[in-house]
Amino acid sequence: MAFAASTACCKPSALLTPRASSSLRAQALLCRPSTSTTFRGVRAPASPFAVAPVPRRRAASTGIVCGKVSKGSVPPNFTLKDQDGKTVSLSKFKGKPVVLYFYPADETPGCTKQACAFRDSYEKYKKAGAEVIGISGDDAASHKAFAKKYRLPFMLLSDEGNKVRKEWGVPSDLFGTLPGRQTYVLDKKGVVQYIYNNQFQPEKHIGETLKIIQNL
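User: That's the sequence. What structure does it adopt?
Assistant: C-alpha cells below.
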C-alpha cells in the first residue's frame, strides 16, 4: 500500500524554532567592536592619527610681598595729586627719609585706624626728619574730606586707576578682591630699606616703620 509523502512533518515548526533570547542579543552587542579607547581600565593603543594634547603653560611666578619694588631697589618715580589738588612727585623728597604707605580706601575701618596711628606718631617721624605719605585709589576730594575729618597732618596722594600701585607691584589680598596694605621706607637716597605688609593689623605699620626710620 502506497502512502503519500507527507510534507507536514518536514516543515519547520514555529514551536521548534529557537527564538533569540535577550541574553544572546546582549552578547552579540558585546562582540561588536567598540569605538572607545578604553575598556574596563585597559587603554587601547593610541591611533597614529590622534592629536597629542598641548601641555598647559604655567603662569609666571610673581612676588607675593615685595612685588616689583624690593628692598635695596630704587622705585619708579611718580607724579600724583594730593588732597589739595596739587601735583606731587616722589623725586621731590630725595634727601630725606620717606614712609610711603599704600592703603585700600578712605573711611574704611582699617584704613582709618592706620591713618590715625600715623597721625598720633607724626611728631616722631618729623623728629627723625621723615616724610609720611599715604596713597590710595580715591580721588583728591575724598582725600581732602578724609584728612579734614581726622585731622591728618600728612599728605594723601590720589592714585586713580591704581597705576602706581601696579607699577610698584603692591600685592592684593583676599584672592585679588582687596587692594593691598603695604608700607615702604625709603632712605635719603631714595633706596628702599624696608617693606612691611599687613592687611589686617593696620596699626602695626607704624611701630615697624618707626624702628627703621629712627635707625637710618
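The radius of gyration is 38 Å.
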